[in-house]
Amino acid sequence: NSFCTLLVVAPLWTATMSAAPPAREASVVIVDTSHHMRDHLSVAKNVCASLIQQKFVFAPRDLVGVVAGGTAATVNRLNTAAPAEYQNLTVTRPVMSPNADYLKAIDALTCNPDTSVSFDVLDAIVVAVDAIHEAVADKKYGRRIFLVSSCAGAVKRKEQLAAIIDGLKARGVALVVIGVDFDDDEDEDAASANIDWAKLTMKQQNEKVLHFMCAQLGQESLVVAVHDAVSALGALRKKHLAQRAYCKCVLDIGDIRIPVALFVKALKQSIPSFGKLVAKGDEPVVYDRRYFSVRKPDVELDASERVKAYRYGRSAIPVNDVDVAQMKFKSERGMSALGFVPAEQIPLHILQGGSKMLTPVHGDTIGAGAFGAFVIAMHELKRAMIVRFVRCTNANPVLGVCFPSSKGDKQVMYYANIPFAEDLRHYTFRKLDNVHGTPDEKKAIADLVDAMDLDKFERRQAAAAAGADLAAHPSPSPAAPTGATVSSSAGTAESAAAGGAKLLSIKETFDPALQHYYAAVRERYLRPDAPVAGMPPQVAKTSTNWGAPGSVLEPLLSSSAPQRKRVRDLLPPPAPKADGAAAGKGSKTYWFQKAGEVAIEDPAVKAARGEGAAHYLASGTPGATTTGAATPATPHTPSTTAADVEDALRVGVDLSTGAAMHVTTVDPVNTFLALVNRKGEDHVARALHELQEAILQLLKVTVGPQYYPRCQDALRAMRQVCVREGEPGAFNSFLLHLMLTTKAGAHASFWTENVVNAGIRAIPKSECPESDLTDDAARTFFDDRAPAPRAIIDDPADEPSIFDDLE
Predict the structure, then answer these.
(1) Residues 356, 263: contact at Cβ < 8 Å?
(2) Which end of the chain is more exposed for a tag (fewer CB within 10 A), N or C?
(3) What are the beta bridge partners of residue 90?
(4) What is the pTM assigned to this prediction?
């Protein structure tokens, strides 16, 4: 056969092919539609559809073809060249990028009822190889054939088996046989002389031949039962990513220069973004971006009329192309070692942006030797290497750290970014000084941690399984000493623990959001009118609903239930207070109150009871009781509640001292009062200035009267403090500025309703001796300084009007 001779000739690139697997794969699915499949065709079609759907989501760059075997017609290229051969084989879809038509073609396959029609599985494999070769020729593609068949038809030319196997090896084609109704007892040595072929049926002989072929082709070729294929295709998987270098550069370690390549090892996989199509049809939407001036919204601006600008504070600084080129940071690609530090000195919480694997460039044996020596030395000395990394020319440099990894003959480094000073966030949190548990509480929590230890739980499970196995299969030597039996049991348990599957293994724990997205898109694609599918049940086993039966953590949670109950009994959450005010108007429920069953009292309720800022305005002293006695706040006392902590975080309070650092627009009154009464140096002047800025900012960003009450309360607090501290001039001057700003502007209603009608007036001498205003002057303070009404300007009679032309 001329085609079998062609298969034997290997392309030249196979001899020099890189060790990395090809980024793309060309595959053909062979579906048996002969009368032998009349009871199994639906299962076979589901398997084929699942194979193609996997390509849609996880390998969209792969090529797929479909060949139907056992059809009444014959449509394939080899039959056209030799009409007497390769009969009853139809290439229903050529090898190309799959689309919706492929699934429709699979669904349209029907079983051929003609019992006289069959096909040769070896011929089908040769036709599939020819279809792959026609599509990709000698390009660098992976090649795979999926054969879904019962293999009950006659094989006419068994003498060509060796030539076909050699041809598949030469072209690097893997064969995956999904056997329908195959025998469970597999005999891989199909060519053994012990097999009596005369007693085997045609189907059994074909099964032995396919087992032999897969064994000869290598590890990627195998025979699986159809039910195992259905389970494997339904299992969760991740998207295939090609093995490409993230960056290639030179690693400088002093005077030593080693060419290296970086490969992405771990990086957060984001959910694909949604595109846009025309509502009626599959046409994509074209984006057209145009620019217009604010002053002339009808005039489009071309590129010559636009200029880039950078924000500098509240100003926009225009820059031209020359400025932009000069502002760019100049750098050269490379990685330079800055020094070595003990690995334990690198905090894990500062590592940024995933990790990358650092290896010597392929083919550089001298550089690989030097690189491996550094890895071994760093591993033995437990050191990490601090580096300066520039990915490409003129890119911004970053700091990074390289950790060594030496396992057997594999020496690599793992690289991760570390922050600069501008990247760090420095926060101060309240110290937990009074957290001292009782001995019973400490023991209960320690027992709970031990009970939920994943490593110890796996070892206990493995030991229990090993003990059960020894009980079911005792040692065949009854005279063996007891000590020897125990030692054997311990060894079995240890080996079982070492070889057991790890709970929450990274390779088997999938992103529930990403997998739900894939399932929903696949369901929408197959059933456009059906509702979107829910969470896949496979995700619930490893990522959600931990306590449900079937979850990987359900045994652990069940076994630790007594310890968890013990801790809950010793540390019960506080019961919610049945306060009428708390349940009434103005109450607020925090998110952590629902999640953790924590009873939090709303700040509005405390204000209604006379606490906080409202009580200060009435008494003049923060924390004062209704009798006027001052009770200074003690932030570190046990009376501090979770609501106080939440409020402090919300308004910007120094939690280490309990004192406000700045006046904020979120809670201007409380932060202003706390800053005024802060111990140490005098903060009154700064607090007054910041409160004025906060009021003006709130009036600037308010939508309608949204922030008017907050500004009114802030003015009252400012007036009270100015009277107490002898600063009436500051309040009167700001009140005048506020009147001029708001009365003639967009916030005139604020001035009328929230200032004048609310009774907020200038501070007279009768209230504060430092004031230079009498009571009469304070009453007429607003009238004397009110802006004059604007005159109505009429157009001269002889001035032409643009509306005259409309008459």
Answers:
(1) yes
(2) C
(3) 68, 75
(4) 0.57
